[in-house]
Fold this sequence. Notes:
Chain A is mainly α.
Amino acid sequence: MTPIDFEAAYAPLWAELEAVVRVAETRRKFDGARLATLYRRVCEHLALAQARAYPIHLTQRLEGLTQSAHRLIYRQHDYGLARFARLALVDFPEAVRAHRGYLLVSALMFVLPLLAAGWAAYRDPGFILHLLDASAVRQFDSMYGDGAESLGRTRNASDDWQMFGFYVMHNIGIGFRCFAAGIFAGVGSAAVVVFNGVQIGAVGGHLIASGHAGNFCSFVVTHSAFELTAIVLAGAAGLRLGYSWVAPGRHTRLEALRLAAHHAVVIVYGVIGLLLIAAAVEAFWSSARWIAPAVKYGVGGACWALVLAYLGWQGRPRAAAAAAVAKADEHAG
Amino acid sequence: MRLDTLYTAETPEGIALSLRPAGLVARGLAYLIDFAIRLGIFFAISITAGMLGKMGVGILLISYFCLEWLYPVVFELTRAAATPGKRVMGLRVVMDSGLPVTPAAALTRNLLRAADFVPSFYGAGIVSMLWRRDSKRLGDLAAGTLVVFSDQVSLHGSVPAAEPQAPARPLTAREQVAIVSWAGRATRLTPERFDELARVAEPVLGPDTSGASASQRLLGVAQWVLGRRAGADARGAAEGRGP
C-alpha cells in the first residue's frame, strides 16, 4: 500500500476522530465508546505509518491526533466525595500504619528533644534565652499570664478569625516544608521536626517553671492532639522520601523516590486535614477563657484518644473480611 | 550524540507519544507570569478584606496560603493541565508516562517547590533542570511529571505537486525516506538550498531530458515514491513497491 492509498483509505476515519475529540474536549456528553474504537484504529495506523516510514507530515498528523485522544481517554474522573471519604476513612490511616517505622523515628526525633529542652528550661530559667530573645520570652509570658484576655495570643492582635488564618498559613506551611525538605536525604525533615520539638519543649518548660502551667496546659491540650501528630506525620513522610533514595533497594534511585512520594503523599493529605482541624480548634476553642480548664482537659484527652485510635484502627479490614481473604489464600495456595 | 530533547513515552496501545520537555526559560517566564497574577489576586483580596476588619486579616492570611500552595495544584488539575502562566507560554504538565497529571502528582510536585527553592530562589530546581535532558526539577522527579510544550511543531509540510517520474535505479528504503523527507521541507528551505540538496541525489534522477531543474525532477521522484504514477490511476503499478 502506498502512502497515497493509505491516506485515501483512512482519512475519513481520522476526520471522524478529529470531530469526536473536538466534541469531547468542549462538551460533557460524548460518545466514549466510539472515541475508544477510533483511537485504537488510529493507533494502529500510526504504528503502520511509522514502521513503513510514511511521509513525516502524515505521521505527525496521526501523532497529534492520537495524543489528544489519549489525553481524553486517560483523563481522571474520580474527584468526587466517594474518593474523599475513602481517603479519610481508609487510605490515610492505612498509609500511616504502613509507615510505622518512619513514624517511630519521627516521633522519637520530636519527643526526645521536646522532653530534653522542656526539662532544661524547667530547671534553668536562663536556658530559654539560648533559643529565643528576651522580648519573645516576655511576650510568651504575657500570652499565658492570668491577665491575658484570651490565651496564647498577644494582647493587641487577637481575633479568632485572624488567628485561624494565621494558624492555617503558618502551621500547614510548616507541615508542607517538613515533608518537602525530606528529599534531601531526610535531613531537612529531621531538622524541622527536631527544631520544633526543641522550641515547643523549651517554651513549655519555661512557662511551667514560671507558674503558668495551668494556663499553658489547658491551652495546648486539645489542639496539640492534631497539631503535634501532624508534624510528626509530615516528618515521617519526609523521612520516607529521603530514605528512598539513600537506600533504594531493588529500584533505581529515581524510581524509588517516585514510589516513595506516591505513597507518602497520602500521609500529606491527612496532615492537611489534621492541621486544618488543629487551626480551628486552636483559634476558637483553646484560646477561649470562658471554658473551664477541667473541660478543656477532658475534651483534650478525648481528642488525643480519638486521634490515636483513628490512626491505629480506622480503616483496617474487618476481622471477618480478613479471615475470608486468608481462607481464599489458603485455597489458592 | 542526540541534539534534541524529545522524550518518548510508550502507551498501552503500543504507540510512542513524543513529548517536548520545556526548558528553564519557558518555565521561568511562566513562573513570573503566575507570580504577577498571584500578586494581583492578593492585592485585590487585600483591598476587599481590608474593609472586614480583623476577620478580613484572617481571610487574607488564608488566601495567601492558598495562593502560595494550592494555586498551581488547582490549575494543573484543570483540563488545560497548566497554570495561566504556563498556558500563556504554551506549556502543560503531564505524567512522564504521557498520561494526564494525577491529583497526587500535582500536589507532590507543588509541595516539593519548597525543596526546589533551596538555597534561595529555586537554586536546587534550576540546577536540576539544567542538569537533566528532560528538564525536571526535584518536584518533577518525585512526582514523575514532565512540563512539556502542548503544541506540536510541524517542520514538514505535504509534498508539493509534480509530474511523477520513475527513478533511474531501484531505491533502497532509506533513500526513499530521505527523498520524501526532503520534499516535505519544500516550504521551509530557500529555493537555492532546496535545489542544492536535490543535486546530491543526481544519480537517481537519470539523464536530464526535459530541462527542468534538479529539484523539480526530484519532487517527481518523491511523488513516484509516494505511489503516484504518470497518467491516470496507476495504483496497481505501485503495489508492494512503496516505502
